[in-house]
Amino acid sequence: MPDIIQLLPDSVANQIAAGEVVQRPASAVKELMENALDAGSTSIKLIVKDAGKTLIQVIDNGCGMSETDARMSFERHATSKIRKADDLFLIRTMGFRGEALASIAAIAQVDMKTKRVGDEVGVHITVEGSEVKNQEACFCPEGTSFSVKNLFYNVPARRNFLKSDSVELRHIIEEFEHVAIPNPDIAFTFHHNNAEVFHLERGSLKQRLVAIFGKSYDTRLIPVEENTGIVKIKGFVIKPEFAKKTRGEQFFFLNKRFIKNSYLHHAVQSAFAELLPKDSFASYFLLLDVDPKTIDVNIHPTKTEVKFEDEKAIYAFLRSAVKKSLGQFNIAPSIDFDQEAYLFNIPSKPADGIIRQPQIKVDTNYNPFKVEYIPKEKPSERELSNRNNWEKMYNANKDLQLQQKVEKDEEPEQQTINADWDNDARESSSKLSYQLHNKYILSNIKNGLMVIDQQGAHERILYEQLVEKIENHKSATQQELFPKTFELNAQDFEMVKELQPELEAIGFDIRELGKNTFVIHGVPADTADYDSVQLLEGLLENYKQNLQELKTNKHENIARAMARNMAVKAGKALTQEEMNNLVDELFACKMPYHTPSGNPTISIISIDELNERFNK
Ligand code: ADP
Ligand code: MG
């Protein structure tokens, strides 16, 4: 038998290695931008076409390369950043593996122009599928310009695997931000299909964050700064009242490298502790600086995970630094007389200036055991249809009990339901609802007590209405008298653009106003009481959360997000009429018993159960 093992040709080996380094256009963006940083640039330009599928170009004004280095840079394991194994522990640069250019050149058509500071002429190299196609002297500015065309042109399986432009662009924006945030002393621009996505001047970290995330961040940021022997901490946390329900804005940078670390996240989250609303996450932009000797970034090629020598100490420092800032800026529970005025909500003097003793009014005719008298008039059409719904409510009782029995694997017993309704009893009981803790609606039903979760019920009602509106395009829009602008970060802006048809279907009229901004011209007709910007923000927040948690289509997701956003919240007092309407509309739903996310909306405590409790 002949020997069968052969060394792979470089082009194949590079293509395999590329699979690790370049998963999508955003990975190439990250590598090229990091190279530009390592070259000591003060200005970096990113130009992208078709979400990086057609072109990714990075132009820097860094140190440039000699002719030989330019040629060498495409070889695998060719790097100027380390020379021996020990150097791995001294790394201050972003790159060090010498893999990126070789990988990119294996799966794309690459065009590089570079010139060192002081050199007369530069060099222009074209590489395609690891093969150098052309090399010549050229006139070009100092620095390096790198064009990556037709990524994965020779790996069709990979190319087909890419997501929509909108998704790929969001990944690119994410990588761009990871590089731009910790480097505010470098100017960046980013163009996509000839439109400017970012234009970031040199400035402070705060200015950088505001330039990326929008003007509203100016007043949301609380500075954090702490220098210890082990770690230098610098950056900002977001005021707790602006905390988000998605894990969107959590940025740790270790020696200017974006990292993910759930242990350190916990340190920040716990520093906020009870300041955060339930189910919300702290947002932060924190730059940690440690001696490279005490970390190991060599774990993963994409390098977002890092091993620390002294993780516990860093945890403790981080937590106390954030706590200190929250305290200093009057966010921690210390009373601040300017900000917490509501604690001293003393009623103002009456108009006539005379202060009288408080009086208690007693209705001596009130009899708590008397059932409210409701005159029997001819019922209106609406009332008639309501009655049908209330009948459904009784059946709900039946259905629920049957359901519960089936769930318990018991034989359903028909006799639990008394179908022989007493009309009067139904009417009187149906008209009386009681609100418990501004959260639950209690209704007397024949078989016991029905408890409805007001928020869940409302969510179900709105959800079904919205799904119908989206599918039939028949929602009404109320035009805003004073259109408001809605400013977003670049990623969210892309998302809203993608969702525009669905948003229009539910009644929003929003139009793009240049960079990262929409103008809200109209809102769904039944949301006139809401602040339109808050409404859209909340909608987006819920939508993003759904994206992480569920696999639903866009229509359903939008309907869910909007329903959650608009539903009356626990804590809202409802009038008798509002309660009745809510119950009524709930039972007009196709699936009244659960919220769109599957939580129960109704629970029934049967008379039998109560009897048992009272030993009857
Ligand atoms: P690494 O960054 O890990 O060293 P790369 O494959 O990304 O590996 O780059 C190889 C080498 O090419 C770098 O070490 C650097 O010397 C050179 N290089 C790459 N991009 C640039 C650039 N924009 N400016 C100057 N030199 C560069
Ligand atoms: Mg590199």
Descriptive report:
The radius of gyration is 32 Å and the shape is elongated. The chain has helices spanning 10-21, 25-38, 67-72, 100-106, 156-161, 165-180, 205-213, 262-272, 311-328, 381-407, 423-430, 454-472, 490-505, 532-549, 554-566, 576-587, 607-613; strands spanning 43-49, 55-60, 109-115, 122-128, 131-138, 143-149, 187-192, 195-200, 221-227, 232-238, 250-254, 257-259, 284-289, 295-296, 307-308, 433-436, 440-445, 448-453, 477-487, 509-512, 517-524, 602-606. Helices cover 36% and strands 21% of the residues. By secondary structure, the protein is α+β, with helices and mostly antiparallel strands. It has an eight-stranded mixed sheet with strand order 5-4-3-6-2-1-7-8. Strands 9-10-13-11-12 form a five-stranded mixed sheet, covered by helices on one side. Magnesium ion binds at residues 31, 34-35, 95, 100. Magnesium ion binds next to helix 2.
* Unreliable residue runs: 332-347, 371-384, 404-429
Calculate Rg over CA atoms.
32 Å
Strand content: 15-25%
Decide which structural class fits the backbone.
Answer: alpha+beta
Global outline: elongated
Tell me the span between the first and last alpha carbons.
90 Å
Instruction: Tally the helices.
Output: 17
- Percent of residues in helices: 25-40%
**Extended strand count:** 22
- What is the mean predicted local confidence, pLDDT? 82
Bound molecules: adenosine-5'-diphosphate, magnesium ion
Strand order of the largest sheet: 5-4-3-6-2-1-7-8
